[in-house]
Automatic annotation (TrEMBL):
Keyword Magnesium recorded: no
InterPro entries reported for this sequence: Cyt_P450, Cyt_P450_sf, Cytochrome_P450_Monoox
Protein name: Cytochrome P450
Keyword Membrane: no
UniProt keyword annotations, A-Z: Heme, Iron, Metal-binding, Monooxygenase, Oxidoreductase, Plasmid
Transmembrane segments: none
A single GO molecular function term of this UniProt record: iron ion binding
Source organism: Rhizobium phaseoli
UniProt family annotation: Belongs to the cytochrome P450 family.
Amino acid sequence: MNARSHAIFPRVNRAGWIDTLRVMTRVIVPTVAKGTIIRRQTMERLAERQSLHIRAVKEMQRLKDKYGPSPLLLPIPFRPQLLILDPADLATVLRSSPEPFAAATAEKHAALAHFEPENVLISSTARRAELRPAHEHALATADRLHPYSIHFKRIVDTEFLQLISGIGSNRPNELDWLSFSQAWLRVVRRVVLGERARNDVTLTETLNELRERANWPFTARVDRRKLALFHQQLAGYLGEPDKHSLVGRLPTSDQIAWEDQVAQWLFAFDAAGIAVMRTLALLASHASYWAPAVEEAMGGRLDRPFTRSCLLEALRLWPATPAILRHVTTEIRSADRIVPSGAGVVIFAPFFHRNPALLYANRMEPSIWGENDALPDAGLVPFSAGPVICPAHNLVPTIASLAVGTVLSESGLALIDPVLPVDNLPGTLDHFAIRLRLSARRREK
Ligand code: HEM
């Protein structure tokens, strides 16, 4: 064995050309088409109507039945991809990052170059070692509750109470994505950048325009002028950071321009907002889970284990990051096959999260999480796992459960749209289409 090769998988199978084509058209294309960096509303609707994710999961199951559970090499010219089919291999890959499974893949480079070209996700292993600790400190990765949680609760309360009281709304008793997302973005700007950023809608718009381009990796040209403008807009907040903001926890450094790291925070909070909206839709449809979540919200504690588990269920059922990607840094040898250095690795989360062997595959079952937010041995990894795990895997559930709690403590909720069959939840839940009816709890009493 070559000194730089790794024997990680006892066996690797190779897919035929037709099966490779089927994975491309039934799994990869629908996932990419929904928008990997910013969701496309029309594609999200189509994915829900056509059950594209359920079809993708079935396709993966067919491959597993045909070839067996070992990783499956798709012989795509110039860019072979290793498809992971077994939870044990998923856990191995995530544990063995960034070497020999680097997070910095060509696909991520092509997309993130548009709005955060120096981000930790696409950095070399050496650069990652410098950047990752700064993320972990600012986001308090290891702490279940971020040290600024009380402050964050105040922000969430003011923004969502204002939303619920119907200020500025045409339909005060209804919560839809448009009104929810505006309040959520105010929360995000205040949490990440501080009070001064509350109404900086221009900053969000600039970032979103860059993200639209990032949805076309390998094809769209990087808009350098807009990227510079975005950096300029961010620089104002980074230069004089607000004391209780996340950027206020970044170290001062001449070597690192934090704009590219903070862009990821602003971008990724979108996924958390979507998950909050879906959690509310789930709770409105499950009376038995509704009551304990309301009780937690009324209790007023910052740590809300049950609500966190409900959020994790929303992320299991509808993963925010459907494909966790890796890049093989040194060739991998199995019994009779070599996976070349440079090959991609694909962990298609819905395949594991909706595994029909799990009794709860298509139902909501908060109890599965216990105290955890990753169960890699079962293949359940909404925030990934291992050394590259999302550094906000504690922060997101905290802020999200506070937001859910503010809504629940103030209002009764009924799901107007869509209808959610609780015994067989759909493969996609189009968050743009969720509509909830609010009834003022205080006035009811
Ligand atoms: C529901 C919300 C979120 C989900 C489901 C999520 C999930 C993920 C996943 C799956 C990864 C990739 C990990 C890997 O490749 O193994 C990731 C990376 C990352 N996330 Fe999140 N994330 C969310 C929100 C956030 C937020 C709000 C922030 C910051 C405030 C954040 C910061 C990051 C960073 C910096 C990385 C790169 C980590 C690295 O490369 O070391 N995420 N996230």
